């Protein structure tokens, strides 16, 4: 599996967009990028995933660079409830069905 | 997505005893996994729970310490045996289907060993 690199922590002002970067420079052509978040005392919550096209859902947008070596998770209007640890994971199903978690980014949304 | 229930949600156990954690899903799922999250750390995969056969363990985890059962496609148990304070962690169940779809996680069992 390709490894990912994320900044250990980030701050964001409430109501502003939170842009969380992830580096996955050794990603292979068939590996997907997944994002999860973990709010304190809860299990990880799935946010979004993609292969090479940008993706958007009700929670967030995922921007993957053309060379696929990095991606950015965008929370368009961060709220205090978005304070969590965000994990970027690369995975190539069906060879790898589990999720391998790195250290993640601790996002703190401030009022 | 599947609704995942873990029991107990938390427990305090004495050194040398064992704790069995249950994971119940409201629909049949192909894959079930068990993870450990030590205090202040990220999640580490313990094993894949295989229906009707022995679990597949990750490096550093052994069946004698973490026996796992999966009798059907909706239920699995993880036992943490011969507890020591180092076993104090959150244990999480994860489920999913083969393919691109993401895995989903329960809220975990917080174990404290005294």
**Mean of all residue-level pLDDT scores of chain B:** 96
Spatial shape of chain B: globular
Measured on Cα atoms, how large is the radius of gyration of chain A? 13 Å
Secondary-structure element order of chain A, N to C: EEEEEEEEE
**Secondary structure tally: strands of chain B:** 11
Q: What fraction, in percent, of the residue positions of chain A are helical? A: under 10%
Taken as a percent bin, the fraction of beta residues of chain B is over 45%
Low-confidence stretches of chain B: none
Based on CA atoms alone, the radius of gyration of chain B comes out at 13 Å
Poorly predicted ranges of chain A (pLDDT <50, ≥5 residues)?
Answer: none
Characterize the biggest β-sheet of chain B. Answer: 7 strands, mixed
What's the quaternary structure here? heterodimer
Distinct helical segment count of chain B: 0
Residue share in helices of chain B?
A: under 10%
- Identify the strand order in the major beta sheet of chain A: 1-9-8-3-4
Q: Span between N and C termini of chain B?
A: 36 Å
The chain-level structural class of chain A is: mainly beta
Question: Largest interface, counted with CB-CB under 8 A?
Answer: A-B, 21 and 24 residues
**Overall 3D geometry of chain A?**
globular
Number of strands of chain A: 9
């Amino acid at each position: 599996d390709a490894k990912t690199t994320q900044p250990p922590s980030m701050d964001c002002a409430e109501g502003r967009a939170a842009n969380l970067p992830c580096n996955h420079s050794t990603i292979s052509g068939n590996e997907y990028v997944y994002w999860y978040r973990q709010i304190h005392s809860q299990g990880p919550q799935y946010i979004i995933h993609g292969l090479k096209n940008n993706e958007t859902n009700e929670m967030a947008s995922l921007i993957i660079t053309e060379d696929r070596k990095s991606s950015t998770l965008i929370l368009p209007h961060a709220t205090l409830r978005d304070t969590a640890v965000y994990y970027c994971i690369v995975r190539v199903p069906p060879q790898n069905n589990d999720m391998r978690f790195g250290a993640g980014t601790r996002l703190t949304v401030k009022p | 997505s599947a609704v995942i229930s873990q029991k107990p949600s938390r427990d305090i156990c004495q050194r040398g005893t064992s704790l069995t954690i249950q994971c119940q899903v409201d629909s049949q799922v192909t894959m079930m996994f068990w993870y450990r999250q030590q205090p202040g750390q990220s999640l580490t995969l313990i094993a894949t729970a295989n229906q009707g056969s022995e679990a597949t363990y990750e490096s550093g985890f052994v069946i004698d310490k973490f026996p796992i059962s999966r009798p059907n496609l909706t239920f699995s148990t993880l036992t943490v045996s011969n507890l020591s304070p180092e076993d104090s962690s959150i244990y999480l169940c994860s489920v999913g289907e083969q393919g691109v779809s993401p895995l989903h996680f329960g809220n975990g069992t917080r174990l404290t060993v005294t």
